[in-house]
């Protein structure tokens, strides 16, 4: 029995994979990739499905835009948010939603594993706790910034893994 996966799902997985590679190598997800993927997703859907396709693609960008709250808090970088938006433009809102939920869960597990491997769990947890308590008590928002450069975490890889989970879930 052959499984026919829609080309827009596969393209979303490929774009996320490419973003993961550049995030690992250069600690950056480039606008050339994300913006062009968003445009390609919108054009693809318009060409094959007309106005209905355009609506679907634009609606797919919205879950990624909602993740701007993660960027404002300092949890994600702008490239991660744009990668979510590109996945949504290519594969639709449902695929993007599954990608976001699964990538956040995968990211949490990966962060816990990295803290154990790097043996900085207590220090990182204490910094995060102080940040949250300061936010609650002072009601003054400021972005969370890790103090150590080695604490970089390639979330693009989690987004790629999230697209694979979304693909598995929807197909």
In a nutshell, what does this entry contain?
The chain contains seven helices and no strands. It is an all-alpha fold.
Structural class: mainly alpha
The counted number of beta strands is: 0
**Shape call:** elongated
Helix content: over 70%
* Straight-line N-to-C gap: 13 Å
Mean pLDDT: 88
Q: Biggest β-sheet: count, sense, barrel?
A: none
Give start-end ranges of low-pLDDT stretches: none
The count of helical stretches stands at: 7
C-alpha Rg, in Å? 17 Å
Please report which band the strand proportion falls in: under 5%, 5-15%, 15-25%, 25-35%, 35-45% or over 45%. Answer: under 5%
SSE order, one letter for each helix or strand: HHHHHHH
Explain what you see.
The protein is mainly α. 80% of the residues lie in helices and 0% in strands. The protein has seven helices and no strands. It has helices at residues 7-26, 31-66, 68-73, 78-91, 93-118, 121-138, 155-170. Helix 4 runs antiparallel to helix 5 and helix 4 (78-91) runs parallel beside helix 7 (155-170). It is elongated.
